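Handover notes (outgoing to incoming on-call)

Open items:
1. Methylenetetrahydrofolate--tRNA-(uracil-5-)-methyltransferase TrmFO: sequence verified, structure written out, both below. Nothing else pending on this one.
2. Nothing else urgent.
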Amino acid sequence: MTDTLHILGGGMAGSEAAWQAANAGVRVVLHEMRPTVETFAHRTGDFAEMVCSNSFRSDDDEQNAVGLLHWEMRAADGLIMAMADKHSLPAGGALAVDRDAFSAGVTRAIKDHPLIETRYGEITELPKDGHWIVATGPLTSGALAESIRSETGADALAFFDAIAPIVYFESIDMDVAWLQSRYDKGETEEERTAYINCPMTKPEYEAFIDALLAADKTEFHEGETAKYFDGCLPIEVMAERGRETLRHGPMKPIGLTNRHKPEEKAYAVVQLRRDNALGTLYNIVGFQTKMKYGAQTEVLRMIPGLQNASFARLGGIHRNTFINSPTLLDNQMRLKSRPNIRFAGQITGVEGYVESSAMGLLAGRMAAAEILGRDLPPPSYETAMGSLVNHITGGAEAKTFQPMNVNFGLFPPVEARGGRRGRKDRYKLYTDRAKEQFTAWLDAQPK
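Methylenetetrahydrofolate--tRNA-(uracil-5-)-methyltransferase TrmFO structure tokens:
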């Protein structure tokens, strides 16, 4: 027991933690309750199943903090990034994947690793002995969540995360819609045509907003409050903030030219991104929703090009649970009251597939180092990974702690020689510094 690392949860963070610890030479047992115990959001028993978007967001490691985090995870031989690269789809500068092939690839890699054992079944209480990482994610089971609340003496925090609909390509009217990435971004023709675009005139947009606001919505249970993470706001919540909000958000028309009517400028544009390698499925970008199913089909078919849309999956809403990490975890991601237990992934209060995986990577390496009798400090908070773990273990204000994506605001400021720099130059300074620091952190670890 003392020489084995146990990991609760086979999502992005748990899978990455298992991979990193096993590659360091530590025996790992990965515990996953699916498919023995199902959730309403998951469809399979595979590890690292993607239940929301199929995008890892920007892959630009010079100008974007998410892209930098991609770079760091690749440098650390991350499993999640390796499988994302292997099963990537054209996405115009973003990293999107075939979600089924991706999770199947992660599952095969985990099960084929000689030092990783997988066990299925629900664990309902925090373990008292041994080395553990809790990476149960936003859909932590009620029993385990209650055990966490009992141990920490604090109420678990919760917000709501909405799922975007997926459309069958064959049902999209390509005489109305067209293929184009925003600003024709991408190095290949496939990248430059990675998105399907559905244009709207002003009257069509106004009618769509009216229908969206009037549609039947999912009701919350008594005692629940809708505290959404801003990166996953349902479209109807955005519309409630102002009629033009969507047109300046996921429906913005900039950087796009209608191939069918190049002389006409669309008032708004709905984009769809390829969801699988075959190109048979497309998800509606930024269209997370809590509309009821009947209302969804009616409202979404108002979008030009989707008037005959057939849906592989309609949108939904689920509850996400996370702990108040700044008060509960030390800088090794250990629970202060029970230092044999680490937390990783979305349950720590990071948001996004990449951020969750990165926290799993760190937790796995830190736990392995401890088992092997070594000291492994976290990476400098001048790095993307270090800035995140610093944020959740003390950098954030505990009273107002909310889920956070990686962003340059979490990094210490850069000193630009020669005076003030433009944003492009300044971001390059951030990423250059981070890469140097992260490489040094990796080089200092035993091979």
